[in-house]
Design brief:
Blueprint lengths: L51
Bound molecules: zinc ion.
The site of zinc ion has 8 residues, from loops.
């Protein structure tokens, strides 16, 4: 038993870059580079890391 109700939608890693590192909130609007929850500035340019 390693996963019960895990795979439901898509790949969570797909929107990992949309998660605010400051508050952990997922940005719905990826067009903005600023968290609408805490106002943390996010860099989309760094989304990817090790290709
Ligand atoms: Zn935030």
């Amino acid at each position: 038993m390693e996963s019960g109700h895990h795979s439901e939608g898509g790949d969570p890693a797909c929107w990992l870059g949309l998660i605010c590192p400051a508050c952990g909130r997922v940005r719905e609007d990826r067009t903005t580079s600023q968290c609408e929850n805490c106002g943390e500035e996010l860099d989309e340019a760094g989304a990817g890391g090790a290709a």
